[in-house]
């Protein structure tokens, strides 16, 4: 048997819980990856809660210095065949990761960068940042979540050095059959209560449905962020949506599962600037839910427009309401789309598919 290749993985792990840390934990727990390689993990998370992400503090600076030193000394002692890093695309986090990556290049190690985020147009357009990006992407390979995300990186790295790997999730649903057709349709929003996630666009769409006389229920599930509980309730009251719209706060485990089980359609009208590949859409597909979402990030790689749901323009309550009405008026097609969503999940977005894809990428990088 050939000797296992050494793989050093410098990545974000929970807490806090967000897309990159969830995927990091999946990699750390992967039997396939840990069997195939001799793995060493270093946690890069400087924050302990989502609200603290992106903020700078003296405590964080101390952590980052110690973390940088741990990464460098581990590379020197371990001499890995490949270094895997999950960097930030812009802001102060990029400067931190730039320093680490450039330092590791001194030791002539192979490096692969796995992006779970994208940079803002304003930040990318600054001359000093573009200069740093050109240096950052030299002599590395990268992993993107979908082809839609490559144009941002295209000025700095050739596509031959890019791998595409969609995220995956464990199958959790045992949802069978459909709800009673005589019951009002249930729409589900499940994410943080943030304005850029389309919270108010969905409320406006619900108002349009109510004014046209449609019967429906819309459940909001998620922790309050820049949209506060009082602001949301005031808006619901203002639009006279009491009885149609209810916010339930954050839910986890079986409580969250219950909302997926009860739902007919998943709605996620995000225009968040850093949106790439929302794991919650994969969860919804696991529960056989057709999705209404937006053409943001790599979402079109997730949701096949017109087949497993709809990808609409961002910030458009009108377009959102039209698709919600379509699902109300076409229950049979709604169920067919839900079945297709589940099949797409099974074919492309299971945790097993993700682990296989990542293992193949690591092996190819080591051989190159």
Q: What is the structural class?
A: alpha/beta
Mean pLDDT: 94
Strand fraction equals 15-25%
Give the termini separation.
Answer: 21 Å
How many beta-strand runs?
12
Rg of Cα set: 22 Å
Separate helix tally: 15
Helix amount: 40-55%
Oligomeric composition of the shown chains: single chain
- Outline type: globular
How would you characterize the largest beta sheet? 6 strands, parallel
Give a quick set of tags describing it.
six-stranded parallel β-sheet; 15% strand; 12 strands; 15 helices; alpha/beta; 368 residues
Describe the structure.
The chain has 368 residues and is α/β, with parallel strands linked by helices. It is built from 15 helices and 12 strands. The strands form 2 sheets. The chain has a 6-stranded parallel β-sheet, with helices on both faces. β5, α7 and β6 (162-164) form a beta-alpha-beta unit. α3 (58-78) runs parallel beside α4, α8 packs across α13 and α11 crosses α14. It is globular and about 65 Å long. The model has no long low-confidence stretch (mean pLDDT 94).
List the helices and strands and how they pair.
Blueprint: E1 5-11, H1 19-28, H2 31-36, E2 37-43, H3 58-78, E3 82-85, H4 91-105, E4 111-114, H5 121-125, H6 127-136, E5 141-144, H7 150-153, E6 162-164, E7 185-190, H8 199-211, E8 216-221, H9 229-238, E9 245-247, H10 253-262, E10 265-268, H11 279-286, E11 291-294, H12 299-302, E12 309-312, H13 317-329, H14 331-348, H15 351-367
Parallel strand pairs: 1-2, 1-3, 3-4, 4-5, 5-6, 7-8, 7-10, 8-9, 10-11, 11-12
């Amino acid at each position: 048997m050939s000797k296992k290749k050494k793989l050093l993985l410098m990545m974000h792990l929970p807490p806090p819980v967000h897309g990159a840390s969830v995927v990091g934990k999946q990699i750390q727990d992967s039997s396939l990856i840990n069997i195939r390689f001799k793995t060493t993990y270093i946690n890069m998370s400087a924050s302990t809660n989502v609200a603290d992400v992106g903020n700078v503090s003296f405590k964080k600076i101390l952590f980052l210095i110690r973390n940088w030193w741990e990464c460098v000394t581990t590379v020197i002692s371990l001499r890995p065949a490949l270094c895997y890093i999950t960097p930030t695309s812009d802001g102060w986090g990029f400067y931190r990761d730039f320093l680490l990556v450039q330092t590791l290049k001194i030791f002539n190690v192979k490096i692969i960068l796995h992006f779970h985020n994208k940079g803002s147009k304003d930040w990318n357009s600054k001359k000093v940042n573009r200069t740093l990006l050109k240096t950052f992407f030299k002599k590395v390979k990268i992993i993107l979540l979908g082809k839609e995300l490559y144009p941002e990186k295209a000025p700095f790295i050739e596509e031959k050095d890019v791998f595409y790997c969609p995220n995956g999730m464990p199958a959790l649903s045992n949802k069978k059959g459909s709800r009673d057709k005589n019951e009002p349709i249930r729409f589900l929003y499940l994410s943080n209560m943030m304005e850029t996630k389309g919270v108010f666009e969905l409320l406006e769409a619900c108002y349009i449905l109510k004014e046209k006389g449609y019967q429906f229920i819309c459940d909001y599930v998620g922790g309050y962020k820049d949209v506060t509980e009082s602001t949301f309730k005031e808006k619901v009251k203002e639009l006279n949506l009491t009885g149609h719209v209810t916010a339930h706060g954050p839910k986890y485990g079986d409580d969250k599962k219950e909302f997926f089980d009860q739902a007919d359609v998943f709605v996620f009208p995000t225009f968040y600037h850093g949106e790439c590949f929302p794991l919650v859409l994969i969860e919804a597909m696991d529960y056989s839910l057709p999705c209404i979402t937006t053409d943001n990030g790599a979402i079109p790689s997730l949701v096949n427009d017109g087949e497993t749901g709809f990808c609409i323009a961002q910030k458009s309550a009108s377009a959102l309401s039209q698709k919600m009405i379509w699902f109300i008026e076409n229950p049979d097609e709604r169920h067919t789309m839900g079945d297709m969503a589940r099949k797409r999940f099974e074919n492309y977005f299971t945790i097993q598919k993700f682990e296989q894809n990542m293992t193949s990428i690591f092996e190819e990088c080591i051989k190159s």
